[in-house]
Design brief:
Number of helices: 5
CATH architecture of the largest domain: Sandwich
Distance between the termini: 122 Å
Strand content: 5-15%
Largest sheet: 6 strands, antiparallel
Strand order of the largest sheet: 2-1-11-10-7-8
Order of helices and strands: HEEEEEEEEEEEHHHH
CATH class of the largest domain: Mainly Beta
Oligomer: single chain
Structural class: alpha+beta
Number of domains: 2
Radius of gyration: 34 Å
Number of strands: 11
Helix content: 40-55%
Length: 315
């Protein structure tokens, strides 16, 4: 079974952003869970606001099932926006996907009221499109939309988006630090570390895609020799170890920049203290000048009084 399906950032993150900030005209659908499982109770209604979701036991799936669901594949099936409607795409080569009790062999259009089952004895779900204004994403409150965005748009890309968030925080920190840093050495360190962070981010994106590809290859290799499966597993373990190393490297770079920012802040505080000391000294000088002027005036008035006493009051 072959298909042209591919997980995309636009289908999850892009569609999720549109649902949060530009919900007008966007529709959503509901997956009604009809069987009990560890992650989903029977009767639970799951609103889907993105254009692309995956169902399975993999932690990156937006509709996830636990390991006790042995007949559910890691990435079992996907539901994708198709024009004004939706379609379901089977992803597993070993466990079938059923719509209304019949196994599907390829992309299949979904209609409101259809039943989806992952494998013959797997979890059963109803596919429901709300009617009227209630079918629009804009009918969902902003707080709930943000929660759904986190659960559905970010889940498949949690590693890549984590490092992007680190870069964003560092970039903001760099802009703040730029205004307070006086030392050229500290400026240079920040620029070098930010460039290294950008490089690690790109490597992580590549690593994430490699792991996705190897996961799919591992699923496909189940029908091949044990040696081929062992090769794919070894490559997958190596890719995961490399990804862990990259995340650790990013965390260390983050710590380095935070240390540089703290030093810059200390330098700024020292400069502020110096400015305050200078201002205090200026205040003392002003106070001294004022006091000197008052004493000079008092002395002049005292001399005039003595002069008046000796020679009589001037006319």
């Amino acid at each position: 079974m072959e298909n042209n399906y591919k997980r995309t950032v636009a289908g999850s993150v892009g569609a999720g952003m549109a649902s949060v900030f530009n919900a007008s005209g966007r529709q959503y659908y509901i997956l009604e869970h009809k069987t009990e499982s560890l992650y989903h109770h029977a009767g639970e209604s799951q609103k889907i606001i993105v254009d692309q979701i995956e169902m399975g036991r993999d932690s990156a799936c937006q509709v996830r099932f636990d390991e006790s669901q042995e007949t559910v594949s890691r990435r079992h099936a996907a539901i994708v926006k198709d024009g004004e409607g939706w379609k379901i795409i089977p992803l597993s080569t070993t466990n079938p996907t059923f719509v209304n009790g019949s196994p599907i062999q390829g992309e299949t259009k979904l209609n409101s009221g259809d039943e989806i089952r992952l494998s013959s004895k797997g979890p059963l779900m109803g596919f429901i499109i709300p009617q009227g204004k209630q079918s629009m994403v804009s009918s969902i409150g902003m707080t709930e939309r943000l929660n759904l965005f986190r659960q559905q748009a970010l889940r498949p890309y949690k590693t890549a988006l984590w490092i992007m968030a680190v870069v964003l925080v560092l970039a903001v920190g760099g802009l703040v630090a730029w205004n307070i840093i006086q030392s050229k050495k500290t400026e240079k360190i920040l620029l070098e570390k930010q460039a290294q962070i950008e490089s690690v981010k790109q490597d992580l994106n590549t690593s994430e895609q490699l792991i996705l590809d190897l996961n799919q290859e591992l699923i496909d290799s189940q029908e091949k020799s044990a040696a081929e499966q062992a090769r794919v597993k070894a490559e997958l373990n190596a890719a995961r170890a490399n990804q862990a190393r990259l995340i650790e490297q990013a965390q260390q770079l983050n710590n380095d920049i935070q240390e540089a920012l703290e030093k810059a802040n200390d330098a700024s505080n020292s400069a502020q203290n110096a400015r305050e000391n200078a201002q205090e000294l200026q205040n003392q000088i002003d106070s001294y000048n004022k006091k000197a002027q008052e004493e000079k005036k008092s002395l002049f008035e005292s001399k005039e009084q003595k002069s008046d006493g000796l020679f009589g009051k001037r006319k």
